[in-house]
């Protein structure tokens, strides 16, 4: 097995890893990103079908307070547009009550979506990097501290890197990668018990020829405590020329088949919109708990947001050569795209101090 020398090796080609590599472009450092999956993007995933609205199945919305991700989008010249919620919503409180159309309260806040799907930011970041920077279908197995480097063993080849940055969900890093010497017990406990954003989520979407939910006395915004669909929104494109509905399905349907989930969702939509809801073009879904390179398994129950932004993530390990980064490691909008980008900036600033 061959060994390559690197200055910085980044584990994970999600938003944090790609943003960090993008920032490191301003240096002369040799950077490689190792990605276990066959695709890049992590928990950003968009499904594209010809002549249909793109369906985001992972990270989707950005709010004005999320300044770091907004600045990155601006630097990359990526366009945003406002999420349409409408003035009303379909509200279904429980099985014993009929769904009702309610007026949404006046709200000056706004959410943005990325034109042509959130995966646009991933593709654009990747296109700024030198060829061969990203190695997909390559999984890191172990990290071993040497005198001046960390020996990174993967399923394909080894690397000697001056610095290693893990951008994996902390629990996934703890589950899949061994270190020599072992990390402190206090850190291992935090890693193993850090909640992973999207871990229990099922995202689904339907594309349609017409936006029938824009008709009077209905809505494209759904909030339901009954049925498989819990939150659903208008997911049409920026120009309102391609139409879709998309949102969150109950995580309790994890063990159903894709076809079963589709039929259950359609039955619920049919109860709100009539038979026109059945005339969909395509159905897309992502059961995040079934994504082995993205979502860890847990031995015990972990509370939502548990250990997100824990102070131990701010420290460096393996003789100051290992950095722990990612959306769960930052306190600023933990689990969101903002946290991922903020984490990349923080590690970049630390690396600038460390590397002479």
Automatic annotation (TrEMBL):
Write one Pfam family the protein is assigned to. Amino_oxidase
Q: Does the keyword Transmembrane apply?
A: yes
Assigned keywords, A-Z:
Membrane, Transmembrane, Transmembrane helix
Q: Which spans are transmembrane here?
A: 7-24
User: Domain Amine oxidase, which positions?
Assistant: 15-83, 100-345
Q: Which family does it belong to?
A: Belongs to the flavin monoamine oxidase family.
Q: What is this protein called?
A: FAD-dependent oxidoreductase
